[in-house]
Amino acid sequence: MRTSNLNKTTHYPAHQTSNLNQLLEQAAEALALKYKREGSFTNAENVKEYLKLKLGGYDREVFALMLLDNQHQLIHFEELFFGTIDAASVHPREVVKSALNANAAAVILAHNHPSGIAEPSQADKQITSKLVDALALIDIRVLDHIVVGESCISFAERGWI
Fold first, then answer.
1. Residue 22 lies in domain
2. 10-38 pLDDT per residue, tens
């Protein structure tokens, strides 16, 4: 299901696209293991690097959660919502349910912009605010919301969370 924008311009055969996606997934898993052993996801650059590998290859919007424990170590990465080339419907109820099921103490929200332009939209800011409020009711902290494009934008670094 994952296709890379790179593959569209270079016209790789389908089996090479699959191999590239497998390689990116393996790299993301290696990073997750590294941070699980050596530290937590408290550094925005580490989070961006991980999420770029996880979400950067999609050709449609994908909204995901990094579910974290009290030490901000990754419990689980979950892709929750899949949208179109420029939007994904995000349902706060499902986000809360996922966080509770994982027994998460904190979350990092993430989604990609397949256009490559990571600048958050007004809709991105509004859903983030709703999710922060919903998760606060059950004492789960939202540490950041990362938008993945050619670069990554952190809501926390901009003071929006």
1. 5-154
2. 444 444 556 767 777 777 777 666 655 44
